[in-house]
Specification:
By secondary structure, the protein is of the alpha/beta class. It is 39% helix and 18% strand.
Length: 320
């Protein structure tokens, strides 16, 4: 049985990835600063580890590992990334985690890793038009991310690719586009827009909810199940450079809120308020992933939103 390590196994995507790898027959070792918040881990081992600490990383990473999945990062939604209040932590924490892991891979002669990057690394100037953003993989340069989170992701992509070139490590990289679903943060400031909107619609007594910015800013959203399938296809594939992993269906934030309202039979009224919004337009460009993997994520927005809403409703009911 092959041993794999999931760094960030206590987080939203990490929890689902651990479950998938277990179902595929791997011996799964999870590592994170904390246990999963909303469910018990299915990992064979789970280690509470500060991946910023080289000694702890050295103890965690052993020579018998077949592969590492590196999802650990300091991240969150627009309320965390775009205020500017967390930039130093975002840059330092995520960078040092990646440096520590790669150093140990070289020392222990482990040569397979998956790295989770983000669409936030794309240039801000290519995302000013809500109806026509440009996020094809080759558009990443000249670089101009809209946040320090995006700059860190871009740097770390180059870090992993440099280690691939110089040390023969088999690196696979996905640029995630707004992954959502059950077991994600839904309150507290780090939640993404689908979870925040679902929570607001559950909690509203008047039918009115607040949406940051004009609400015309657009995004595409990838349900967690499709994300996990995409990770496996990228890891199993032969393409050696970053690939977009997201849906091509673009929707404005106001439209997203109204869609959740229709799916849940709620009569919603939107109040647009001042708040961090990030770029004006963002959607996944899937030409390259189709060419290299003969696959791209299906559109599962309505089903995913309904599942996410019901899960958040359960969380709120359980806290009352």
């Amino acid at each position: 049985m092959k041993k794999v390590l999931v760094c960030g196994a206590g987080g939203f995507i990490g929890v689902h990835l651990v479950n998938s790898l277990k179902n595929q027959g791997y011996y799964v070792i999870g590592a994170d600063l904390r246990y999963p918040e909303f469910s018990h881990t299915t990992a064979d081992e789970f280690h509470i580890v500060d991946l910023r600490n080289q000694d702890q990383v050295s103890e965690l990473i052993t020579t018998d590992l077949y592969e590492i999945y590196q999802l650990a990062a300091d991240m969150g939604g627009a309320g965390y990334i775009f205020t500017g209040n967390n930039d130093a932590n975002i840059m330092y924490n995520s960078s040092i985690i990646n440096l520590n892991i790669l150093r140990e891979m070289v020392e222990k002669k482990i040569n397979r890793i998956f790295y989770s990057s983000s669409a936030c690394m794309y240039p801000e100037h290519n995302q000013t038009d809500p109806s026509n953003p440009l996020l094809s993989e080759e558009s990443a340069y000249p670089a101009n991310p809209d946040s320090e989170y995006g700059w860190e992701k871009l740097f770390s992509e180059r870090l992993f690719l440099s280690f691939a070139k110089n040390y023969g490590i088999r690196v696979r990289i996905a640029r995630f586009h707004n992954v959502f679903g059950p077991e994600s943060s839904w309150t507290g400031g780090k939640e993404k827009s689908p979870a925040a909107i679902c929570r607001k619609i559950v909690e509203t007594e008047t039918g009115e909810i607040e949406v940051w910015g004009p609400g015309t800013q657009t995004r595409s959203y990838l349900y967690i199940d499709e994300c996990i399938v995409g990770i496996k296809k990228i890891v199993d594939g032969e393409y050696e450079y970053p690939l977009n992993l997201g849906s091509e269906r673009m929707i404005s934030i106001n439209e997203l809120a109204m869609l959740v309202g229709r799916l849940t039979n709620k009569n919603i009224k939107i109040k647009n308020v001042t708040g961090p919004i990030g770029v004006n337009g963002r959607t996944s460009h899937n030409k390259l992933i189709k060419e290299t993997l003969n696959w791209s994520p299906p559109d599962n927005l309505e089903d995913g939103l309904l599942k996410t809403y019901k899960w958040i409703l359960e969380q709120i009911e359980n806290t009352q």
